[in-house]
Specification:
With 197 residues, the chain is α+β, with helices and mostly antiparallel strands. It has a domain at 11-78 and 101-123 and 151-186: Cyclic phosphodiesterase (Cyclic Phosphodiesterase, Chain: A), CATH 3.90.1140. The protein has 3 helices and 11 strands. It has a 5-stranded antiparallel beta sheet, covered by helices on one side. A 4-stranded antiparallel beta sheet has the order 3-1-8-9, covered by helices on one side. The protein starts with 10 loop residues before the first strand and ends in an 11-residue tail after the last strand. It binds adenosine-2'-monophosphate. Adenosine-2'-monophosphate (2AM) is lined by residues 14, 49, 52, 131, 159.
C-alpha cells in the first residue's frame, strides 16, 4: 500500500494525467526513434502534469483531497501526435496538436479550485505535454501517428527526489465520468493498488 503520510508530514505532490502501460510503451518507442539525446524520462515515469503543488503539509493536503471528492469532469481521449522541443528549457516532449475542450475546461476548473483552496496555482499557461527528455539539444518537430489515450482519471502523485532521479508514487486517483452514447455517465474510478505500474 502507498504511504499516504501522517498529517504532520510534508509531501512533494503534483496532479497529473498518468497513462497506462500501452500508451507509455508506444510513447517510449517513438521517443527512442525521434528524440536524439538528453536525460530520457524512464518509461514508467511518463505523464502529463496538470499542476505541480510542491511541498504540501497535512492541512493543505486535506483541502486538496476535498477538491478530488467534489470534482466533476468528463473522461476524454487525447491524441498525442506531435514530438518537439523547447530549446531554451532544453526539454523534448510529445503533445496533442489539438487540445480537447474537455481538457481545457478540466484544467480551468482545477486551477479555480486550487485557488479557492489556497493551494499553489501554476503560473505558466497550461500547455499539455509529456516530457520525454531533459537537457536535450534542439531537434526537429515531427508529426507522428497519434498515440490515442483514453483518460478517465486524474492522479495525485508524490515525488521523491532520489539521488538516482525522481521517483513517483500514485497516492490517489480521482475518476472522471465516462459518458455513454445516450449521454448518461457510466462507470467509476478506483483507488490505486500501490506504486506506479
Ligand atoms: P515538466 O515535465 O514540464 O518538467 C514532477 O516534477 C512534474 O511536475 C514534472 O513533470 C514537471 O513538469 C512538473 N513541474 C512543474 N513545475 C515544477 C517545478 N517547479 N518543480 C518541479 N517539477 C515541476
Amino acid at each position: 500500500m502507498p504511504d499516504k503520510g501522517s498529517d504532520g508530514e510534508t509531501q512533494r505532490l503534483f496532479l497529473a494525467l498518468w497513462p497506462g502501460a500501452a500508451v507509455r510503451g508506444a510513447v517510449a518507442h517513438l521517443a527512442r526513434r525521434l528524440v536524439p539525446d538528453g536525460r530520457r524520462v524512464p518509461t514508467q515515469n511518463l505523464h502529463i502534469t496538470l499542476a505541480f503543488l510542491g511541498d504540501v503539509t497535512g492541512d493543505a493536503r486535506s483541502r486538496m483531497l476535498a477538491i478530488g471528492a467534489n470534482l466533476t469532469g468528463s473522461a476524454f481521449a487525447l491524441e498525442l501526435d506531435r514530438i518537439g522541443c523547447w530549446p531554451r528549457r532544453r526539454i523534448s516532449w510529445i503533445a496533442p496538436s489539438q487540445t480537447p475542450a474537455t481538457l481545457t475546461r478540466l484544467n480551468r476548473k482545477l486551477r479555480e479550485q486550487l485557488r479557492t483552496a489556497c493551494l499553489p496555482v501554476p503560473k505558466r499557461r497550461f500547455v499539455p505535454h509529456m516530457t520525454l527528455a531533459r537537457g536535450s539539444a534542439p531537434h526537429a518537430f515531427h508529426n507522428v501517428t497519434p498515440v490515442v489515450w483514453s483518460i478517465d482519471r486524474i492522479t495525485v502523485v508524490r515525488s521523491y527526489l532520489d539521488p538516482g532521479g525522481a521517483r513517483y508514487e500514485i497516492l490517489y486517483e480521482w475518476p472522471l465520468q465516462r459518458v455513454n452514447t445516450k449521454g448518461w455517465p457510466s462507470g467509476g474510478g478506483r483507488m490505486p493498488s500501490g506504486n506506479v505500474e
